[in-house]
Amino acid sequence: MNDWIKETQFAASVVFDDFNERLRVEDYRGSVLPLIHSIKTAAQQKKYSKLIVKARNEHVPLFIEKGFRYEGWIQGYFHGSDAHILTYYFQQERRMSGHEWAEDQMVADIQTKSPLSSLSPLPDLYKLRNAQEADAVALVELYRTVFKIYPSPLHELGYMESILKKGALFCLIEHDKQIVSAASAEVNRMYYNAELTDCATLPEHREHGLMKHLLRFLEMELKKQGIFCAYSLARAQSYGMNAAFHQLGYRYSGRLINNCYIFNDLEDMNIWVKDLSAT
């Protein structure tokens, strides 16, 4: 849930992310330099090791001047204008990734392959549908099975029941009445963008490319709502997920270093972006 930091010269919508030891600035208005001072102080008071800002184009030089690092951008995030992802680190070890070279090589290899013009039909016995409130228990079991640690509380039944009750854009694939794959779209109604997230498939079903079907289904649902900026953060060490986004026509646009806890440790996350109005 977003909080607000408000002072006489600015206001900022922020997320105090204790689990991932970071402060995220999702939006802001007003004077940038006092904002920078205040958010650095707020992050240090919480003993966080990372600060992340979605910045407007015209403010990028100010953040760079004050020690922020440019890690990527999301095309069209702010009602068609780009969001630039700038980060500030309070610990050297949080800023350093031991996997960047291998992750760069993996992205380069994926980009040598052509995007898919169409998807093959789902295999027999697999069924894709929207998630319902009654699916909460099975979805929690899926996420607990696939991810030992996850950056949002999808392991908690109460949280899952709550987001499904609120009408979250969640879809899933069943096989023999078991949920074997799922994904969601987190929609920003103010700026009309959506993050495709919560992508999970049981290992024994990954050979069928189920996630690409889920992502394509979510894209169609977003377009119906007039949302054309779609993006995702994919684990930088996951060849399958990064390849899936490339094959669906997403563009690689940066990497967030040691961004969040997944499985047993902090992991780098690759940014993938797609303009749905062009498809």
From TrEMBL:
Database matches in Pfam families: Acetyltransf_1
Organism of this sequence: Anoxybacteroides rupiense
Signal peptide limits: none
Encoding gene, per UniProt annotation: ablB
Segments forming domain N-acetyltransferase: 126-277
Protein name: Beta-lysine N-acetyltransferase
PROSITE patterns in the record: GNAT (PS51186)
Domain of life: Bacteria
Lineage: Bacteria, Bacillati, Bacillota, Bacilli, Bacillales
